[in-house]
Give the backbone structure.
Amino acid sequence: MTQRTIVITGASDGIGASAARTLAKAGERVVVVGRSVEKTERVATEIGADYFVADFGVLAQVRRLAAQLKAKYPQIDVLANNAGGIMGKRELTVDGHEKTFQINHLAPFLLTTELLDVLTASNATVINTASAANGFGRLDLTDLDAARSYSTNRAYGTAKLANILFTSELNTRYGAAGISTAAFHPGVVATNFAAESTSPMRHAYKSILNRFLLSPEQGADTLVWLATSTPGRDWMPGAYYAKRALAKANKQAYDAQLARGLWERSEAMVTQPLEELDPRV
């Protein structure tokens, strides 16, 4: 097997770290990306991988990460946008965007679009970690930063819905250029991704209920499958999966006009100075 380059964000812990271990063991060249220097370095050292550190709450760090990846890897075969999590009360990042939306959607959107030339040249697969929580999301293009209405769980669900819409629109725009995309639900996994949350959901990750959750290895299974199987033969590009099978998403996830609008708004949000953005958003 020819060794491929696989970049995984959110790979310092949980399903990202598990997928990195599995893929490295299979002989792939894995690149580990995380927020914590210590944890990211530990995983990378364990599997003999390169690593980079970036805080997705700061878009300048995402741009720096993209530049570093392009400089070092002329070919990227798989980009797994796995970083994310449930946050707490509404909070704005240094870029002026609602934290849940930026970390879960805007940052991976920016990273992917900054790498488009490399990804298209590599006929890459882009995998976005979504969630069944997309079902209680509601995307409003005029209020992506949830200034008018906010709840912790809805913000997370909306960001996961955005992941699926981004997957679909990326396939529409760049599928013919060689990029294959997929979003997936990993299941309810025993990780610390809800550590910063004030959502009631966090209790499941910190209590006796934890024993009923999936292991990180089980949660990573569909990610590994998408990364190692053949798009167009084993799975349909642009779609949403769970347990290696097509899954049903929020009805908004199938709205092509909404997907286009989200792309355009996301592009504006990551490129325009804050004062130039529509103040309603």
